[in-house]
């Protein structure tokens, strides 16, 4: 199969979808890999590193899309890329369709096969291609939240860890999954007082067992959220419904109950955000303020640490990319139910139910293509 890796053109997205080591593994199996020039440079991988393992360098994004049977990306295609995607071309990337209707319609019209990293799902319901970036984003959420609590950037002026004689900051984490766990670990490591909220009692029992004493759990409901938010310095939203829009756990009216300078970090922004006032921001302009509350809603947080993120992502995606390249998408999805769950749009049909429901589109069972 011919695999193409274009440069990411989303604002300040510095990751690349394939390391030179990953390219080599595909080339060893008889596949051709084409990399757009400088696609890996910001992640620490120059063109020479790809050429040394046998990959080919192409000069433009148009050339990569034109050549490839399978496109491997990091982030969802943005508008300038829509017209480059061809009928029957396999696009393997994060899509987060339910958060952006124009992208969904563009991919329907393209006739491409859209296999989304974020909905590839194991039998135990874990999301293997979301986990590595969730780990990065969770750790970064605390790191960024701690920074934006500083007064020069309109935060409360609180040091999360405190100092002797001064109480540490208070952090509320909404969601006890991968992102929430990593965010809580980082906040606890800084010395903050941390509360994790979730609706899964088994998960909360687990977190109680593994977290240090400065982390406590609370059941997530509106009454408990409203009780806690007036006392918090940093609130991290990390709730995920696979393939669907995130629930709005912090509503606009709740901002009035928070102290001025409180920081909100919405890691669920790719799926529409779990704060009602969330709108996507960029690394270039990461925050905005509503009712004296600082909002950090960067949609590609791991893009700020591209070396770590690119290696972590390739470690997770490569085994699936090899299956797709070796067998073709149809046979690979027939034989691997995890990959089958990743199919969202196929040849103009929406085959992932949560995406169809998000925009009231016709849903076509994926069996139409895999039977």
From TrEMBL:
One GO process term, biological-process aspect: L-alanine catabolic process
Molecular-function GO terms, alphabetical: alanine dehydrogenase activity; nucleotide binding
Binding site for NAD(+): 134, 198, 203, 220, 239-240, 267-270, 298-301
This protein's record includes keyword Oxidoreductase: yes
Assigned EC number: 1.4.1.1
Residues annotated for substrate binding in this entry: 15, 75
InterPro entries membership: Ala_DH (IPR008141), Ala_DH/PNT_CS2 (IPR008143), AlaDH/PNT_N (IPR007886), AlaDH/PNT_NAD(H)-bd (IPR007698), NAD(P)-bd_dom_sf (IPR036291)
Domain Alanine dehydrogenase/pyridine nucleotide transhydrogenase NAD(H)-binding: 149-297
Residue ranges occupied by any Alanine dehydrogenase/pyridine nucleotide transhydrogenase N-terminal domain in the UniProt entry: 4-137
Catalytic residues, chain numbering: 96, 270
PANTHER family, per database record: ALANINE DEHYDROGENASE
Name of the molecule in the record: Alanine dehydrogenase
């Amino acid at each position: 199969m011919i695999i193409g890796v274009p440069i990411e053109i989303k604002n300040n997205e510095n990751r690349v979808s394939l390391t030179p080591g990953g390219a080599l593994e595909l080339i060893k199996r008889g596949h051709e890999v084409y990399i757009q020039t400088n696609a890996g440079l910001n992640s620490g991988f120059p063109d020479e590193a790809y050429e040394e393992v046998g990959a080919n360098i192409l000069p433009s994004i148009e050339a990569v899309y034109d050549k490839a049977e399978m496109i491997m990306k990091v982030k969802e295609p943005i508008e300038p890329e829509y017209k480059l995607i061809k009928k029957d071309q396999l696009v393997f990337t994060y899509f987060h369709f339910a958060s952006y209707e124009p992208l969904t319609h563009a991919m329907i019209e393209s006739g491409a096969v859209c296999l989304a990293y974020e909905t590839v799902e194991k039998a135990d319901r874990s999301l293997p291609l979301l986990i590595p970036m969730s780990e990065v984003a969770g750790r970064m959420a605390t790191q960024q939240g701690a920074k934006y609590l500083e007064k020069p950037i309109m935060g409360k002026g609180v040091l999360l860890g405190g100092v002797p004689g001064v109480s540490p900051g208070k952090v509320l984490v909404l969601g006890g999954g991968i992102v929430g766990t990593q965010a809580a670990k980082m906040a606890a490591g800084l010395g903050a007082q941390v509360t994790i909220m979730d609706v899964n009692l088994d998960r909360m029992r687990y977190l109680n067992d593994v977290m240090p004493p400065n982390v406590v759990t609370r059941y997530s409901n509106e009454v408990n959220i409203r009780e806690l938010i007036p006392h918090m310095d940093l609130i991290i939203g990390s709730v995920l419904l696979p393939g669907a829009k995130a629930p709005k756990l912090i509503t606009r009216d709740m901002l009035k109950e928070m102290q001025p300078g409180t920081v909100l970090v919405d890691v669920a922004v790719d799926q529409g955000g779990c704060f009602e006032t969330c709108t996507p921001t960029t690394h270039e302009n990461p925050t905005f303020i509503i009712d004296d509350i600082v909002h950090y809603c960067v949609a590609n947080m791991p893009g700020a640490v591209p070396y770590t993120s690119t290696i972590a992502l390739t470690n997770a995606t490569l085994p699936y990319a090899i299956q797709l390249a070796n067998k073709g998408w149809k046979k690979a999805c027939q034989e691997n139910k995890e990959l089958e769950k990743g199919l969202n749009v196929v040849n103009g049909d929406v085959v992932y139910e949560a995406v169809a429901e998000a925009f009231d589109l016709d849903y076509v069972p994926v069996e139409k293509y895999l039977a």
